[in-house]
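HUMAN: You are asked to prepare a plain-text protein record giving the amino acid sequence and the backbone structure tokens, both parts labelled.

ASSISTANT:
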Amino acid sequence: MIDIPDSLLNLVLMHEVFSKARIEAWNSEVLWSWRWWLLIALMLAPWLLWWRIVDKKRLTEICLFGMFVLATSSWMDELGTELLFWYYPYKTFPLYPQLVPINYTVIPITFMLLYQYKKSWKTYIFTLIIIAAIYSWVAEPLLNIIGIYKPINWKYSYSFPLYVFIGISHRWLLKGILRITSKSSEK
């Protein structure tokens, strides 16, 4: 066995106990519940719709944008869960602290469609603000009401600027990358 300090070994042992308890609770309370089925549907159905309407000519560009959004939303969700800003009693998988269907499907697909259809910054930002408002003050409260999302030290209004920031910063980043790529290919 690797020689590690007792305090770190205690953390590993506590993590093992916590993981086993989380899996046990998930198997007995979450798996096959209507909420679990809803999350499975939210994880799969939007991708089928997206595939039908995504601009296949811009697929690489749109997917890269979606991956930026997915990575950021997953990281932020993991951080928020770890800091006990919120908790997910119902999840698709017991060992992921984040809400996978939202981070890996709903948010990236919404943002990819926004990126695809709103070409000017003005219409993009206007629509992004509407989406951020719907996510912050409609979707999050609804997920709370049905028991999937439970804010602990978080207010819905905190999410609004984060959604806007993700949308603006990631579009700006991708447009910059595309500009550099375009200039490089012209040489």
